[in-house]
Amino acid sequence: MKKVMIVLFLITNAIVSTAQETVSFVAEIANRNGDVIYIKDVRNKPVKEIKVDEKGVFSATFPVEDNFYLMFDGVEYAQLFLKNGYDLKLTMDAKNFDESIKFTGKGAGENNYLAEATILDQKYDYEGLLALNETEFNTKVEQKATAERTKLDQSKLDAKFVELQKTNINMGVQGIKQYYSESQKNKKFNNTKAPSFEYLNHAGGKLKLEDLKGKYVYIDVWATWCGPCRAEIPSLKMVEEKYHDKKIAFVSISVDAEKDFEKWKSFVTDKSLGGIQLYADKSWNSDFIKSFAINSIPRFILLDPNGVVVDADAARPSNPKLQEQLDKLLQ
E strands of 202-283, at which residues? Predict the structure, then answer.
């Protein structure tokens, strides 16, 4: 009997140990965008592929490291914090993606915190923040970061989560300060004559900036490998459609490397990209790209009909402010 009890104890221990070394994740998604969701690590590398079952539920158990992850449903991303031993259930409506996310079960506190933080970040007035002078900007950024750290300290959430989230806050501060610095430098290009370019046109031949004289020119500097660039494509198509009969040309300039030239050509065709699709002759070292000190993409530039820079760091297509600006210029 003693030996039997020992064996049962070892088996039970093994079961408990296995349970503690995995995370259980269940998702019920209304109006889902597909039949598969992917759990990815912070480097966007797939960790787990979860297929929907006959009941319309995504369910899986798998091992993780205590860290942040991304859930990708084929269209949008949601941030997660996963830890072995968590038993998470997610409910959401993909048509109201971020706003509808709700977690229950062990680990819900940390993940609901992330969901709420995403909504707050989307509502934050970053345009107003970036419009401040340097002293006011730095003060506001530090106040925001301090408030977020204090909220974490008072949250009583998982210690590793708090540690990692504070690191994210610090990185966010560095990122927004760098962006502010670059945006201030970009302003010096406004109201100056834009340098010319002559690039290969996907539609055939070459196109010079002078060929577009008499039109406003909205330039999108991008690359096929750039995730944020690709994310703007649907919005760019909608903006192009809205203003297709107006005095404005939409020009996309790819900085894909020479080795990816054919990839660029195929991508433009396969994705039915509109507007004028150009290929920069020397990628990042192209004179036009260097003249605007472009070191990150996507980057959008708006020129007037005479080739003068209206906005060297124009709003993205997904930003409603772009259409507000174009409506005023084209009225």
Answer: 206-208, 216-222, 248-254, 276-279
